[in-house]
């Protein structure tokens, strides 16, 4: 049976801490049989990200021992799949795929024989992609429409329209591309000082982030996972959304643990004024918009740091924050597609046909990396002062996972129901009793947990307290 490599995970963890100028002891990694059937070392990467964040969290309240078990971490990379509701009829639903959407989604061959991953995403993206392909009525028409394009030209046209899809690349093609070279030259987590500010006094609360306020302007998985992780260490989190933005109800429930939720319309003067008031109370501003979107609303990093010196501004996107693709929208699947992960997994599992990883490995791990970066910046702010910009991306996370090397072969032990049940807690929610995974990090000097149940978007007033 293949096991997770605790030594490799610890080396990756130490490398992450070195980005923040830190080193650590008192970290225990319990190596167990692998649950995920993949050669990519996603388990070790996620263990490193969570362990590094947990170590910094423990420093906020005094040194303690950090414990991470590899199978619990692997389960967390499929966390939404492990939700269970006592009354299934009340459970929030997944995103429903329209019949036309299903005809174009997934890996498709273009006319030059190369593979594309077509990602319809939310309804507006679906409608625009269907229009591009002539509104195919069935899968056969969709295949013919996609095959009428050469893959590089189709990718360029989709990106030109601001839509989501990408061409499959092997690792070398990505690493030698202009975008790959720019992104790969950056650390997997960037922590950049962007201004001067007085140091924040240490919290007097019992938990690492007691009295710290976090604004969460993200959706789907990676960004919400960052703020949910901070909430597990005691942060006061409010998720900001808008009534007209599409979302996935199941993901809202899964990533909403520990958060309040409010609607703010940033297209209105009053909405922008409300967000500015919240920024004045915030310690972390986490956003997952494409590059330039919040800048146009007056909430780019320079705007927010000017409004609240000492804040930590977290930016999460698909393809990185510099280079020609910095403003291109993307998803987990596309990060795997362009960085060679789908190519490698297809060669391992699927006779060369590209295939995605058996979990949302770049989404969740990018969220854990963003939380680590936010914690590191908050610790530095407390000790040295300053304002900070933390930058992560799904694609850079994918390349980092690749850099940890590939397993020669995998013999895995899938999860069974009893094991997952032992990793769950139960929270009473508006959807009834929700059985969800506990946080995968344990600290000897404090409990790691979420003190608030998830709620539907917009359930609270836009304030950090009732």
Please describe the structure with a list of short key phrases separated by commas or semicolons.
3-stranded mixed β-sheet, 7-stranded mixed β-sheet, 466 residues, alpha/beta
Provide structural commentary:
It is a single chain. The mean pLDDT is 95. The protein has 19 helices and 16 strands. A hairpin with a 2-residue loop joins strand 14 and strand 15. It is 40% helix and 16% strand. With 466 residues, the chain is α/β, with parallel strands linked by helices. The chain has a seven-stranded mixed β-sheet with strand order 7-13-12-11-8-9-10, with helices on both faces. Strands 1-2-16 form a three-stranded mixed β-sheet. Strands 3-15-14 form a three-stranded antiparallel β-sheet. It starts with 5 loop residues before the first helix and ends in a 23-residue tail after the last strand. Helix 2 packs across helix 3, helix 2 packs parallel to helix 17 and helix 10 packs across helix 17. It has helices at 6-19, 42-59, 70-76, 99-104, 123-132, 139-147, 151-160, 171-176, 178-184, 222-232, 249-255, 269-279, 293-297, 301-307, 332-339, 341-349, 361-384, 394-403, 417-422, and strands at residues 27-30, 66-69, 84-85, 106-109, 115-118, 165-167, 190-195, 213-217, 236-241, 259-263, 284-287, 312-317, 387-393, 424-429, 432-437, 441-443.
